[in-house]
Amino acid sequence: MKNQKLNEQESLELITNMIQNTRHNLDMGSGNMFLLWGYVSAIVTLVIIGGLYWSKSALWMWGFWGIPVIGYLFTILVLPQRQKYIKTYTDKVLGEIWGVLGIFCMVVSIAATFTHSYEIILPLCAIILPIGSIITGIIIRYTSFSLFPIVGLLLGLDMMMRILVKTFSYSYWDMAEFVLIVIFVMIIPGHFLNYKAKKKSSKLGE
Asked: What is the mean pLDDT of the chain?
């Protein structure tokens, strides 16, 4: 059987359908994944801030490893409960992008731990996470989805610039700024996706 070539209009329709399907898949469940990782990151960081404030012990800094441990644990528990859907090419691309970014964050954290360059971990992660959310918004063509991560990216760049001028020191404000970044990058976009899903469901129910 010969392969049929698509004309320009058919190609545009195919791309549009793929984007719409990916939006639908994100609306169905990925909003909760954004919220899961966002709230885990924010809560763990706030606990570390509280522990540092009350105990004055730097050992609390090891608590940041709780983010990937708790995050992946909840992801494993949540994933089987998520609604099954047919993955499109764009779904796979987004999955691979976030997978690569997640691995990069882990590699940076491990390398920084071994080289005692702890100050670079939060700023780099604070830049990587917004980039992932911005790419997601661009691929699924949700312009409003990308607006809040851009704010998070600017805050992450602020943290990185302060490392370069040697003014970043993991103060309470520095860690609170990371929480603010997580809110803009993960929590608000997660609620945005859930809102779109709820809105779509209500329209289908009319």
From this structure: 77
SS3 string, 52-121, reads HHHHCCHHHHHHHHHHHHHHHHHHHHHHHHCCCCCCCHHHHHHHHHHHHHHHHHHHHHHHHHHCCCHHHH
Nearest to 135 by CA among 10, 45, 22: 22
* CA-wise closest residue to 42 among 147, 150, 122, 142: 122
Which domain covers residue 98, as residue numbers?
22-79+87-193
Q: Is the dihedral of CA 153, 175, 125, 77 positive or negative?
A: negative
Segment 15-28 shows an average pLDDT of 54
26 within a domain of the structure (yes/no):
yes
| Spatial separation of the C-alpha atoms in residues 104 and 39, rounded to whole Å | 21
Number of domains in the chain: 1
pLDDT digits (tens, 9 = 90+) for 152-183: 999 999 888 888 887 766 788 888 999 999 99
Q: What is the pLDDT of residues 89-104, one digit of tens each?
A: 666 777 788 888 888 8
Query: Would you state the pLDDT for residue 181?
Result: 94
- Domain for residue 60, yes or no? yes
pTM of the model: 0.77
- Range 168-174 contact pairs with CB under 8 angstroms and sequence separation of 24 or more: 168/119, 168/123, 169/119, 170/61, 170/118, 170/119, 170/122, 172/49, 172/52, 172/53, 174/122
> Is the residue at 153 inside a domain?
yes
Question: Are the CB atoms for 69 and 81 separated by under 8 Å?
Answer: no
